[in-house]
Write a structure and sequence with these properties.
Elements (H helix, E strand, L loop, with lengths): L1 H28 L2 H27 L14 H29 L7 H29 L2 H30 L3 H29 L5 H13 L7 E10 L2 E10 L5 H18 L3 E10 L29 H4 L9
Parallel strand pairs: 2-3
Antiparallel strand pairs: 1-2
Helix pairs in contact: 1-2, 1-4, 2-3, 2-5, 2-6, 3-5, 3-6, 4-5, 5-6
């Protein structure tokens, strides 16, 4: 979590630097499209600062008022960032639409292109780093911020194409058209971020995360893990809360069952760089039905021969039903 906070601090510092670069480009060109890009950087700074606050708050330990921790603040942070992106997009569209009918002259396009190219490249690289780190640690704040900065980078590419057309062909109306397209694109990105944050607040199932976790469990299955079912994962910031039923041999002691749960928790921690909490209900295997799917080779009470290993997947692990062969 501390590494996430350091990365977010760096992102805010970069956003301030890029804001200065973009406003410098606007002041020397008076380009409406460049101004919209600069205004987007203001959103980056505000959203980045709130994202930093949310990461610091999410890192606080649990207390009696927040028994599941403070991680949900990341969803609120992402929803605010998405809303700000959407509002910025609407403002950009409105202003650019006005300037399309009431154009103004543009100057020093060459210098503006150089500055915006530098800013766009930095934005995209920073976004790529943040999104990669966010996916690795299940941090919606970093993912949302990374997607935002990457979208800035792509929109800057479109902006540069428009500026190049103005530079070579002197079609100044292209400036406002490019800005409108830019506004539509970032509005769409804002809606997507808000949609994802609301889904997180509502504990909507993350199928991508579930598939990844189930794949890890299936490919590294312990010999004593007869079956897993009724799996659910809730995200509290970068912390994952697991609810599941694990079937183990019926003759295992409480300590042996606990040891299997520890192995499962360590497996997820090693393969998915995230903290986790486990609330697992332990079931006893039911012979002879489950003997037919049990891969344990040293079982001394087996009542039926092994027939087939059931591959765990999204469809069968989420069901609240033990697996077996009748």
């Amino acid at each position: 979590m501390q590494n996430n906070i350091k990365l977010q601090k760096f992102a805010v510092a970069v956003a301030i630097l890029l804001l200065l670069i973009k406003f410098t480009a606007y002041l020397i060109t008076h380009s409406n499209a460049i101004l919209t890009d600069a205004l987007e950087s203001v959103v980056n700074i505000v959203a980045g600062a709130f994202g930093l606050y949310s990461l610091i708050l999410a890192a606080k330990p649990k207390d009696k008022d927040h028994p599941y921790g403070h991680g949900k603040i990341e969803f609120i942070s992402a929803s605010i960032e998405g809303s700000m992106i959407l509002i910025a997009g609407i403002i950009i569209i409105g202003k650019s639409g006005f300037n399309l009918f009431y154009p103004h002259s543009i100057q020093n396009i060459g210098s503006g292109i150089i500055l915006i190219t530098i800013a766009g490249a930095i934005n995209f690289l920073m976004g790529w780093i943040m999104e990669k780190r966010g996916k690795k640690t299940n941090s919606l704040t970093l993912i949302a911020g990374g997607k935002h900065l990457k979208s800035d980078g792509w929109s800057t590419l479109g902006l540069l194409i428009g500026l190049a057309l103005i530079y070579f062909f002197k079609y100044e109306w292209i400036d406002s058209v490019v800005a409108i397209l830019f506004g539509l694109y970032i509005s769409y990105e804002g809606i997507r971020i808000v949609r994802r944050s609301v889904a997180g607040i509502m504990d909507e199932a993350d199928t991508e995360l579930l598939n990844s976790i189930i794949s890890t469990l299936n490919n590294n299955r312990g010999p004593n893990w007869v079956d897993i079912h009724n799996l659910r994962i809730i995200k509290y910031g970068s912390t994952l809360h697991f609810d599941s039923h694990l079937t183990i041999p019926y003759y295992f002691s409480i300590k042996e069952g606990h040891d299997e749960l520890e192995k499962m928790e360590q497996l997820i921690h090693l393969n998915h760089e995230t903290s986790s909490e486990w609330f697992v209900h332990v079931d006893a295997c039911v012979p002879p039905m489950m003997c037919k799917i049990c891969i344990k080779t040293d079982c001394t009470v087996r009542q039926a021969a092994f027939e087939n290993r059931i591959e765990w997947n999204l469809e069968n692990v989420l069901q609240n039903r033990k697996h077996g062969i009748n």
